[in-house]
Structures are given as C-alpha cells and as structure tokens.
Amino acid sequence: MSKLRLPISVRLTFWYGLSLLIILSVFVVFLYTSFHVSLHRDLSDQMAQAERLLLPAIDTETEAPVFMPSAAIRSVAYQTDGAAGTYVRLFSADGQVLYQSPNFAAHQRFRPSLPATATEVAYNHTWEGAPARSQYTPVRNASGTLRAWLEITRLESAIHRDLHRLEWLLATGILLGVLVAIASGYGLARRALRPVAMLTEAANDIRVTDLNHRLPTDFGVRDELTDLADTFNAMLGRLQASFERERRFRADAAHEMFTPLSATQSEIDVALRRPREASDYKQTLQTVRDHTRRMSNILDGLLRLSRAEAIEHSQAKAVNLTELARQRLDYFLPRAGAGQITVQHEIEPDAFVLADPGHIDTMLANLIDNAIKYTPPGGTVSLSIRVEAGEILLTVSDSGIGFEPAESAHLFDRFFRSDKPTVRQTYGSGLGLSIVKAIVDGYDGRIQAHSEGIDQGSTFEVRFPRLQATA
User: Fold this and answer.
1) Domains in the chain: how many in total?
2) Which run of H or E residues covers position 90?
3) Is residue 5 a part of any domain in this protein?
4) Structural domain range at position 277
5) Which residues pair with 150 in a beta bridge?
6) Burial of 370 (0-12, 13-18, 19+ CB in 10 A)
7) Is residue 358 part of a domain?
8) Residue 71 lies inside a defined structural domain of this protein
9) Does one domain contain both 345 and 285?
10) pLDDT tens digit sequence for 128-139
11) Which of 161, 173, 222, 380 is 20 to 30 Å from 104 at the Cα level?
C-alpha cells in the first residue's frame, strides 16, 4: 500500500494554517468571552445606578409607598422604550403593583419573580420573545420594615445584537486571516524550498560515469541547505576520488599482472618452438616459476589489502603492541644480520591498542620488511614504541635510500614504486605501504612518512589511540 505523497510545501502550509487557526480561535474565544462579560457587567452597573437614584425617591412612610417628585429620577430612562429604556415597577410587600413607569404601556406585563426573602435578587428571563434582566430590591422604612419591592428591568437584546455582530466579524476575520496566511505561507514555503528543487534537479544530473558535477550552493543566503549542499559536494568529491583510485587500481593491477603473465607466455612459446636440451627446459621452468611467484605475491598482496580495507571493529580486542613488536623483531633479526644491518629498538611496556592482532602483525611486518629491504649493508634500522598521554607512537626508521619530498604524497598509493634504480632492482609489489595505511586508518590511527632526501633514510610514524591496560 503506497503512502500518500504530499509535497513539503503543502505540509508546511497545512500545519502553519492549522496552527494559526488554533491560535486565532483561542484568542477569539477569549476576546468574545471577555466582551460578553464586559457588556453584562455594564448592564448590571447601569441597573445599580438606576437603583441608587430611585430608592431615595420612594416615600415609605405613607400608607402605600409612592415615588416622590425628584429631579434625580429624571436621569433614569423610565420613559424611554426599547433597548435604551429602563422599565420600573413598584410592588407592595404582598406583590400588588403600586407603580409602573410610562414605557410599560406599550408592552405586556410579565409576572414578577419576587424573592422569598427580603434580599436583592436579579433574574434573566424572556419578555415578549426578547431576553431581559430584572432586578428586585427590597424597600424598607426607617425602622427596617419591608414596605415594598423595587423592580428594575432592562432589555438584553442590544447586548445580544452586538455579540452576534461581533461573532460574525470575528469569524470572518479568522477565515480571511487564515486564508491569507495559507496563501502567503504556501508562497513562502515554495520560495524557501526552491533550493531543494534546485538540489534535486542537480543531483539527478549526476551520473556515476561523470562525477565532476556539483550541487549548487549559491541560494542568495547562507543557511542549513547551503551546509547540506556543501556536505554533499564534499561527499561527491570523496566518491570521485575513490572512483579514480579504483580506476587506477584496476589499471595498475592489470598492468602488474599482465607483465609476468606475458613474460611467462613468451618463455613457454620460445621453449615450444623447437626441441631443446633438458637444461634449457629446466631454465625455462625456473623463469616461469619466478614469474608465477611474482603473480602469486601480487594476488596475496591484493587479498591482504582487500581484507585490510574491510576491517570489522567487532573483531577488535586489546592487543599488546609491545609483545607483537618484539616477536616481529626476533623474526627479522636473522635476515638483518645476514645483510649486515644493525637493528635497534626502544620499546616501552604495556602499549595496548584496540585492534585485530593479525592486522597489527601485518603492519609491523611490512614496515620492518621495507626498512630492511631498502637499507644497504652497514646501515641501521630502528624501532621505537612510546606510550603518550592518549595515544601510542610507533616509529620505524632506517638509514636507507630515503625518498624525495615529492614522492611522500604517493608512498601509500597502490602499486607505487619509486623510479630510482635501487628501488627497481629490489623485488616488491608496491602494495606493502598501502596495506599498512589501510590497517592504520581502519583502527582510527594516523601514519606519516619523513625523509631528508635521497640516501638520507626514512622514518614512518604511526599513532594509535591508546587503550588503558586492564587486569
């Protein structure tokens, strides 16, 4: 079942519009509620003001309480009809109507809701189909005896009319605001995501056979997408370099294998042209054996290099570099002695690293083998291991043929061998240092090569993260 595909701009616009709708709705509800409460509070204040003006105008000492002529009560709109009017009635203590304001004449009377106790009470009710609010206030004489009830009524239709108008205005405002926000948000999202479309189009144009293309990074502003494009471009650069190395590797491997294979085929063709003596056949077989051995060494080097480049850290464990270095030196001492080469060493104890013992042994063997191979008789090969603060420093130096500074960048390339006659005369596949670098890189180490020049010797420094020794 395929998932629904929605562009990022649509999703961003949707969430932006939904978030804005929720925020505006909460704000509008708060605003509407506050306005509603404020209008009712104003109505209650107006009725309280009318009560303060009317109560002093009631004569409670007569047989039946009546309103006394007073200029104060003229400010009460008891003659005004409609939403702005104040409707006044005066009831006796037993509920008989003693007085009603002139504006009552145009309306039907409604049954009063006199309180059961002599306390001030307000009621909301419907009067002639319109919402109204009535307030009942007890009227007492000087001795505190209940003489009458003052009823003040105001219509709430104006309040509800204003609230309905406010509802429509707020709803229309929310709708228009959200629509405008969605439209502008969609436009901004499309504009903000335009670099993504450019990156996608540029990425689709990149092919394995042509890695020279790069993703655009000029978007008019420096942001996260620019950093992403730079990261992809750096990755493309590494991929391009890797593909170039692989192309050179295939070409170099084919050349290295083709040379002894062609020589072997030539020897066999020459031997088969005519009958020869047994000694001639023996010499031909020895030559073929040498070429075969060379091809075997190349294949073995390629296999070791492949394994070194596919290091699995799950196989790593604590390795005592000190012990492995001593064992490897013991193995090469007879060969060094036969070549009249002095071997010196300065090895600190308990130099532990996290690696595969076989890989570390291969690295040591290749470094020491190279040092002895390219050191003339009477020379010196030195090996040292120092335990520093957070790493192990392994140094293999010799007083041999050295190398030029321009060659230092290619020493660890596959099948690289110097053009100097002394190097070409010495058998080698050109894979030893490549294997060493692959092992060092695989275990988060670093390797450097130094030489003062031709016949000035060489120094190889390898640094590994130090592993604290445990019981």
Assistant:
1) 3
2) strand 87-92
3) no
4) 224-304
5) 90, 137
6) buried
7) yes
8) yes
9) no
10) 888 999 999 999
11) 161
- The Cα-based distances of 324 to 32, 305, 377 in angstroms read 83, 20, 26
d(C-alpha 359, C-alpha 317), whole Å: 11
| DSSP structure string for 217-252 | --SSS-SHHHHHHHHHHHHHHHHHHHHHHHHHHHHH
The backbone region for 378, taken as left when phi is positive above 0, alpha when psi lies in -120 to 50, beta otherwise, is: left
Cβ count within 10 A of residue 292: 14
Position 77 in a domain: yes
Quote the CA–CA distance of 241 and 234 in Å, as a whole number: 11
| CA gap 415, 89 in Å, rounded | 115
If you compute the radius of gyration of the chain from its CA atoms, what whole number of angstroms results?
51
Give the model confidence (pLDDT) of 262-314 as tens digits. 777 777 777 777 777 777 777 777 777 777 777 776 666 666 666 666 666 65
Q: Residue 49 belongs to a domain with what CATH number?
A: 3.30.450
Report the Cα–Cα distance between both ends of the chain, in Å, rounded: 56
What's the pLDDT band for 1 if we cut at 50, 70, 90? very low
Residues 71 and 160 occupy one common structural domain: yes
Closest to 398 (Cα-Cα) out of 441, 462, 438, 458: 458
CATH number at residue 460: 3.30.565.10
Task: Say yes or no to pLDDT of 419 above 60.
Answer: no
What average pLDDT does range 302-331 have in this prediction? 77
Q: Report the b/e string of 74-109 with b at 16+ CB within 10 A.
A: eebbbeebeeebbbbbbbeeeeeebbbbebbeeeee
Write out the H or E segment, with its range, that includes residue 355: strand 352-355
Same domain for 403 and 340: yes
Single pTM value for the model: 0.48
Phi, psi for residue 90 in degrees, rounded to 5: -120, 125
